[in-house]
Amino acid sequence: MARIVLIEDSPTDRAVFTQWLTKAGHEVLEADNAEDGLKLVREQSPQLVLMDVVLPGMSGFQATRAMARDAATKHIPVVIVSTKAMETDKAWGLRQGAADYIVKPPREEELIARINQLVV
Fold first, then answer.
1. Overall number of domains in the chain
2. Residue-level pLDDT at 92
3. Rounded to an integer, what distance in angstroms lies between the CA atom of residue 6 and that of residue 30?
4. pLDDT band at residue 120, thresholds of 50, 70 and 90?
5. Among residues 48, 70, 92, 107, which one has the fewest Cβ atoms lying within 10 Å of its Cβ?
6. Which residues form a coiled coil (predicted)?
7. Nearest 10 degrees: Cα torsion 11, 35, 96, 102
8. Which range marks the domain in which residue 97 is found?
9. Per-residue pLDDT reduced to its tens digit, 45-93
10. What are phi and psi of 102, to 5 degrees?
């Protein structure tokens, strides 16, 4: 079981992803914006962060870059889950330090499998 910080501003997506992750045996901590999410990451030292891109205030790309540059959080894998589906968006997300990039809406099995590969 991994501790996962979910940074997602959509209440519906937060509820669905939390349900899937909890069912798969993970502990989920939620934030609805990047600033609160980064604070949660620093306080809780999760094994993984699930990050939306389009967020109020700081974007998920900016938050991923901030985590990658911070010695305290750079070891924590970030999986971006976003509606931004262009190849350039994926490439940019990976360049910011994301370990993986999944386009919404993900299939439950695919999301859990890709997360489990990173937290084992």
1. 1
2. 97
3. 5
4. confident
5. 107
6. none
7. -10
8. 1-115
9. 999 999 999 999 999 999 999 999 999 999 999 999 999 999 999 999 9
10. -120, 135
Query: Which residue, among 67, 66, 84, has the nearest Cα to 75 in the 3D structure?
Result: 67
Long-range contacts, stretch 72-75, CB < 8 angstroms, 24+ apart: 72/42, 73/38, 73/41, 73/42
pLDDT digit string, tens, across residues 12-50: 999 999 999 999 999 999 999 999 999 999 999 999 999
Return d(Cα 21, Cα 75) in angstroms, integer: 21
Name the H helices within 24-107: 34-44, 60-69, 87-95
120 within a domain of the structure (yes/no): no
Are the beta carbons of 92 and 4 closer than 8 angstroms?
A: no
In a domain, 42, yes or no: yes
| 86 Cβ contact list (under 8 Å, min separation 6) | none
